[in-house]
Structures are given as structure tokens and as C-alpha cells.
User: Which sequence fits this backbone?
DNA sequence: GTCTATACAAAGATAGAC
DNA sequence: GTCTATCTTTGTATAGAC
């Protein structure tokens, strides 16, 4: 029987929590194992005891985050029972909700991929997108626009504000609160804008 | 009289060129001064001789890049002789041209700002945007949409594809060549999409 | 499983010769 | 201005006691 209850967290879990915080905030290279240990309130040696190395620990966290990030689109991609319109609303809405809770996610994932493109390329569930039902729907609806162009728009309109957030808030152009309000608004605006893009021209 | 001619580059300049390449590709933390020295083909000690420290050198490059990045919008912001429509076309067009030459720029700037938000906040020319002529034009044209929302769209549609580029290319969803072609297309598409967003609803 | 102590490696910075 | 050699600091990993 595990001695861990909901109120006392195992050392292993403490390290993972601290690693999640620091890695996603500062990235791999700028994060010190000593800082993780301190943040977790444990001894530095235990990090290596449980996870063998900084890199192994990082990969664990990274895979978790990639799953989070692509989990929003994944299940919808090939669902033939959902209309294009519904997919758009669901994807952008779910992303905004998820990113409101994890605003640092996109910048973290994208910058780490940039540093090691080939290492993560194979593990990304993106390769299937090209043959997905969503792409088929897009081609039918608007043959003269490459589905990738549309995907860039969907993600750009949804994800980019969260990437800009630190800049906008720090520059005083926006407060945390008004940012969140605007993101809520966008859940209705984005589908409207995307719908216009798919109109026959 | 300087002995430097156009064909032989001064040591100082060699270091700056190497630093530009490595910092923008890997970020501050992951870049080693030894790598910069090697890339520049100079002795490690010379880096400190010319720039005192890694950090000083980095700040120099960073300021350069911020100037590049915001230079595209800056001059247009308060130009009262340019219509809103023209501003949109110019901004997105110029950005796409500039980013086609410097695709790593946005991810570099945004991830470094994320690591040190307050350090760069003051130096960003973004605070003036709120009082700009562009924002005034946007408020007049479409009072029910917050200008920031529009700015997010303009930048999201323009800049985000370049942020996604490594992911898209590495996952095999796109080749370098088709990416560039699509970006050229977007120079006409983006203004069209944005125009639709500013229509009376 | 957890901690102390320490080895080992890498990175940034500098002194001093040329 | 440039180089070699070296110092210091910081970061990662491990050995061994409890």
C-alpha cells in the first residue's frame, strides 16, 4: 500500500511539479537542476536518483506538455460526425480555455522545438494532419485555399495572443484582467472571422 | 584612417556576426561564448576584450533585433497621411518580406522577453501604440472592436506562420519552398481577411 | 529513500606574455 | 590587438553514510 495520500506529495511528484514550473517558464538551458531541487524543497541528489539526469526529466515534462497541447485538436481531426463549423468552434474555444490556464505553454513548446527540431519532429502528431478528415472538409468547402493556410489562421488567431501576452502586459498596453476578458470575447469572434475566410470569393 | 575595407572584416564585427547567428538560433542561455568565438574564428579572450561580458554582447544584439522587429510598424503608426487600408497592406507586407529573410526573429525575441519581462518592457516601443494614429483610425472604423484585438489579428496572421514554420517543416507537412510560396500568397490574403473583420457587423 | 560530501565537467572571465 | 594559460563559478552526477 502506497503511503502517499492526497495531502502529502511524494518526493518524485514534488520534483516533477517544480520541474514543470521552471522548465516551462525558463526553458531547458536556463533552468538549473539546483533551482528545481530548491523549488521542490528536496536535496539535489534526489533529482538524479529519481530521474537519472536533467535531460531525462526534461523529456518527461516535454512529452506531457506536447500531449496537452495537441490533445485539443487530436480527437477532433478525424471525427466524421462533427461538421467543419463545429470543429472550428470547438478547437478555438478549447484552446482558449486551456491556454488561459497555461499561458506559457505555446512559447515553451515552440522555443524548445526550435532548439532541437529533429528530436521532436518524429514525436509530434502533426504528420497525420495532412490526411485528416478536417483537411478533407476544408478542401471541399474552399478548394482555392490551401488547408495549411487555414490552419495557420486558426492557430494564429487563437494561440498568438497568448504568445504576445507577456509583451502586451509588461508594456502597459493591457492588464491581466482585460487580457482575459478579451480572450473570452475571442471565443465568439474567431469562429466568425474564420467563417468569413471560408466564404466563396 | 581605418585599415578595415569592405572585404576584410574587423574582429569586433566578426564576433557580432557570430553572436547574431548563435543567439538568435539558440537563445542566450544555450549559447556558449566558446561557440561564438569558434564561429567567429577568433580567440575566446577577445570576446571579453571587446564586449566585456557575454551579457553585454547579448544586450547589444537584442537591441538590434528589437529595432528590426518594431521598425516595420513604428514609422507607420502615427503617419496621418496614410489610410488605415494602406497601413494594413504595408505592415503585413513588410513583415512578411522581413521575416522571410529572418524567420527566427519572432521566436527569438518573444522567448527572450519571456525570460526577462521587466528588463525589456521599458525599452519596447510598444507603450506608444495605445495613443497612436493607427489606433485612432481603428476606433473610428470599428468602435465595437478593441484595437488590441485587431492588432493581435494582424500580427497573429502575419507573424505566427513563421513561428510555426519549424514545426510544420520538420513534421513533413510542408517544404521550405511551399512555405515561402504560401507566405507570398498571404501578402494579398491577409489584407483581404482583415478588411472583412473591419466591416460593420 | 534520503542526505552529505565531493568529484568532475563546462563555462565565463582575466592576467600577463608577445 | 591577440594569444596562452589559468582562475572562479556554476552545474551535473555519483559514492557512500544513515
Assistant:
Amino acid at each position: 500500500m502506497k503511503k502517499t495520500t492526497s495531502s502529502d506529495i511524494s518526493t518524485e511528484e514534488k520534483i516533477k511539479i517544480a520541474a514543470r514550473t521552471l522548465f516551462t517558464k525558463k526553458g531547458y538551458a536556463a533552468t538549473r537542476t539546483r533551482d528545481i531541487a530548491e523549488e521542490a524543497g528536496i536535496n539535489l541528489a534526489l533529482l538524479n536518483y529519481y530521474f537519472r539526469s536533467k535531460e531525462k526529466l526534461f523529456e518527461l515534462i516535454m512529452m506531457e506538455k506536447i500531449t496537452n497541447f495537441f490533445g485539443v485538436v487530436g480527437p477532433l481531426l478525424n471525427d466524421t460526425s462533427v461538421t467543419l463549423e463545429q470543429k472550428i468552434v470547438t478547437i478555438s474555444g478549447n484552446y482558449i480555455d486551456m491556454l488561459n490556464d497555461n499561458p506559457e505553454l505555446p512559447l515553451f513548446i515552440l522555443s524548445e522545438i526550435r532548439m532541437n527540431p529533429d528530436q521532436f519532429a518524429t514525436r509530434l502528431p502533426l504528420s497525420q494532419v495532412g490526411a485528416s478528415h478536417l483537411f478533407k472538409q476544408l478542401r471541399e468547402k474552399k478548394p482555392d485555399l490551401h488547408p495549411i493556410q487555414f490552419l495557420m489562421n486558426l492557430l494564429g488567431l487563437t494561440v498568438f495572443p497568448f504568445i504576445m501576452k507577456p509583451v502586451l502586459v509588461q508594456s502597459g498596453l493591457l492588464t491581466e484582467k482585460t487580457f482575459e476578458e478579451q480572450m473570452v470575447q475571442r471565443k465568439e469572434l474567431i469562429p466568425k472571422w474564420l467563417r468569413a475566410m471560408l466564404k466563396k470569393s
Remarks:
- Residues 169 and 177 of chain A are 10 Å apart (CA to CA).
